[in-house]
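Contributing: when you submit paired examples, paste them exactly as shown. First protein:
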Amino acid sequence: MSKSVSKTKRDKLIRENKSILSFFKSTNESDNSIIEKGEQKTPSEVDTTVVPLTDTMVSLPQPRRNVNNLWTNVGTNNECPKHKWLMNTPFTVDAFRYGLIKGCSGYFLTHFHHDHYIGLTSKFVGTIYCSEITAKLLEKNFGQLLSIVALPTDIFINVSGFDILLLDANHCPGSVLILCRLPTGNVNLHTGDFRAQASMLKPPSPLTEFILSKQRISNLYLDTSFCAPKYTFPLQESVIDAAIQISREALITHPGALILCGMYTIGKERFVLDIYSVPFFT
């Protein structure tokens, strides 16, 4: 059967990709609330007002656990490599395989894929910072004992004196880029795993300020898994449209055929939902 994409389908590629996060409801869409250890704080307790990059931030409530006195199992075998640290901060990113890390007061998790949270157990006592969706996935899989601070996206929050902004990474539900502004004015950007698209650098994305102004990102931690000329991937929309066309042709030829979609924990939701939404028989 043909796997080509028709002109009509190709014309649809001009559409911007939907955000993966659009398929999942936030913890509380009406008040930008923050969840810590499974308890929801109200706006009166936590101010999460959207502000420009140049404004000062409100402080996030301190984690309930004092992890600074818990470095009892740190040894040379689990020394955290330099690239796992956000430069000049007490934060590490996706570094759970190293256990408790001396000097680290905040463990950021970019998204809930095993290769990024590997090493994490229900007994981990460090404070984890992540998106609201990732926080729910952590609690579902590891229980309620983890010390989790769930941060909203697109809003700056001050964490231990550092301004933190989470942005949709367009990778899987809950995946985020981490933008960290230091008191010195320097800015770190950690992409985690992400799917780049033009809208990430267009208004209203905060990243546009690094294009339209003299402000620059000081340190970039970049996902380069496929950053080589030999990799040429089609747009996600074209892959979905091709899958829809192949499925339609298969069902016309074999009306009783069962369409199976290969899945893992999370990350294929957009693909499945888009195929499911198509009325194959009209």
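Second protein:
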Amino acid sequence: MIQRIQSLFLLCTAIVTGLLFFMPVASIVVPNNFTYAFYTTKVVQAGSPCVFITWNWMSLILNALITTLAVVTIFIHHKKSKTVKPTLFLQLRLCIVNIVLQLGLIVLMWLQVRQRSNELNAEWFADISFIFPLIGVIFTWLAIRGIVKDITLLKSFDRIR
């Protein structure tokens, strides 16, 4: 359901991690004046004609999985009274998995950029989009807080009956 606050946070997570497909994560500057732009999907040589170097399959798959999982988690919620509690617990678990995957993406991006810069004997500089997975972790954590509030609300209704 879109009208729940955790759904908005998960939508923000999907948007932020979806932006990683189109924005460079880091720049690798080689001493002979070449600059490589490192995306989660590919590595390109920056310049007037952008030259494609290689694909980043691991970070591409992981980023696609994170974005898809955030969108799927939004639409799991059911309004039927007997299935609300199990779906909330499923949403909670999927959000925790999403946080672990996002932290893994941060580590993977750092390792890939560092490895590529060591191969080229170059320096690397993180762009602003390098922290997008961390922003996604914060949004997912806020969604978890909303899900936990829904669970405690349902438990209080069960006590009243």
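If you have annotations for the second protein, write them as plain sentences, like these:
The first strand starts at residue 26 and ends at 30.
The chain has one domain: 3-151.
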